[in-house]
UniProtKB/TrEMBL annotation:
SUPFAM superfamilies: NAD(P)-binding Rossmann-fold domains. CDD domains: DHDPR_N (cd02274). This is 4-hydroxy-tetrahydrodipicolinate reductase. Residues 195-335 form the Dihydrodipicolinate reductase C-terminal domain. GO terms for biological process: diaminopimelate biosynthetic process; lysine biosynthetic process via diaminopimelate. It catalyses: (S)-2,3,4,5-tetrahydrodipicolinate + NAD(+) + H2O = (2S,4S)-4-hydroxy-2,3,4,5-tetrahydrodipicolinate + NADH + H(+); (S)-2,3,4,5-tetrahydrodipicolinate + NADP(+) + H2O = (2S,4S)-4-hydroxy-2,3,4,5-tetrahydrodipicolinate + NADPH + H(+). It comes from the Eukaryota. Pathway: Amino-acid biosynthesis; L-lysine biosynthesis via DAP pathway; (S)-tetrahydrodipicolinate from L-aspartate: step 4/4. Belongs to the DapB family. It is found in: Plastid, Chloroplast. Its EC number is 1.17.1.8.
Length: 341
């Protein structure tokens, strides 16, 4: 489930800063227990709910496009979800991937396709022959933050268009590498289409109404699976928007939740999604405490990101085929195209 709550009330009741914290050493408590979340949602609010179907339960999209796609690395949960979504969309899954994760016999089966897994150290030797065999190939990268820049340099060296879904790395260098090589690419730290649309709306509000929340106190909580070590790029972007709106907030104040027990009991993450979720909440309180605003988006599972990534790959393929002069894109460009499934 993905939901966004926007609420303003003369008297907001119990605010985040008044609730007891399970960890006293942290200034911000874990703010969305099941009970408190229900209490907030029962107050008058404008609620936009966007339900995300699983890849398996979603109907197959019309097969308007078909091109080869290599998912690097499909041994991870996100990469596997993208590979499944690509097959469901009618794309040709290239039976090669690169990963340091060991798999039995060096092979992995996804949607009846046997994927041969190679160590990342072999990518520079193997990729040229794959590019030759699949001239319309697009690579989707879901590897690790430390590999972002090296992978991008290799894709650019080979003239290989790619969709970078991996977060982290030196993003400024990443963009410069692609621009210098004049390669087609979609780069975005957030591939969830509806979340990107929400972020775009935040950026518009920040640009058009600078200082609108001057003096307000901001409290931020973001919860992801324990394996996600870095701070969410989406959270950073939303915080940046609030800063432009006049809120004073340092990224160190963000309440980063990675403990499964706290996620289950305090945040309210369903147990089956502890290993794959993204719960964000941004709570604003006026200087006198009489007004509060709350922005929230909760994502369970990975299908929203997988489908968005496939849409990005399709978008990139059409740009390449049309010979578009612009080469570097983000998910905002994909959204503006309006051709998502």
């Amino acid at each position: 489930m993905l939901s966004t709550n926007i609420a303003a009330h003369p008297v907001a009741g119990i605010t985040l800063r008044q609730r007891p914290s399970p960890r006293p050493r942290q200034p911000l408590c874990l703010a969305i227990s099941v009970a408190s979340l229900r209490q907030r949602m029962s107050r008058p609010a404008m609620v936009i709910a966007l339900a995300s179907q699983t890849t398996e339960g979603a109907p197959a999209a019309p097969r308007k496009l078909s091109f080869p796609i290599l998912v690097n690395s499909c041994t991870g949960k996100m990469g596997k979800a993208v590979a499944e979504a690509a097959v469901s969309a009618g794309l040709q899954l290239v039976p090669i991937s690169f990963s340091a994760m060991a798999v039995p016999d060096g092979k992995l089966e996804i949607c009846n396709t046997e994927i041969h897994i190679h160590d990342p150290s072999e990518s520079e030797k193997i990729l040229p022959s794959i590019v030759e065999e699949y001239p319309d190939l697009i690579v989707v990268d879901y590897t690790v933050p430390d590999a972002v820049n090296d992978n991008a340099e290799l894709y650019c060296k080979l003239g290989l268009p790619f969709v970078m879904g991996t977060t982290g790395g030196n993003r400024q260098l990443l963009h410069k590498t692609v621009q210098d090589a004049n390669i087609y690419a979609v780069i975005s730290p957030q591939m969830g289409k509806q979340v990107v649309a929400f972020l775009a709306a935040m950026e518009i509000m920040a640009a058009q109404f600078p200082g609108a929340f001057s003096g307000y106190k901001l409290e931020v909580m973001e919860s992801h699976q324990a394996t996600k070590l870095d701070v969410s790029g989406t959270a950073k972007a939303v915080i940046s928007c609030f800063q432009k709106l006049g809120v004073s907030f340092d990224i160190d104040e963000l309440n980063l939740v990675r403990d499964p027990e706290e996620q289950l009991t305090m945040v309210g993450v369903p147990e089956e999604y502890l290993a794959g979720h993204a719960f964000h909440m941004y709570h604003l309180t006026s200087p006198d405490g009489t007004v509060s605003f709350e922005f929230q988006h909760n994502v369970c599972g990975r299908s929203i990101y997988a489908e968005g990534t496939v849409d990005a790959a399709m978008f990139l393929y059409t740009k390449i085929q049309s010979g578009a002069s612009k080469k570097l894109y983000d998910m905002i460009d994909v959204l503006r195209e309006g051709n998502m499934r």
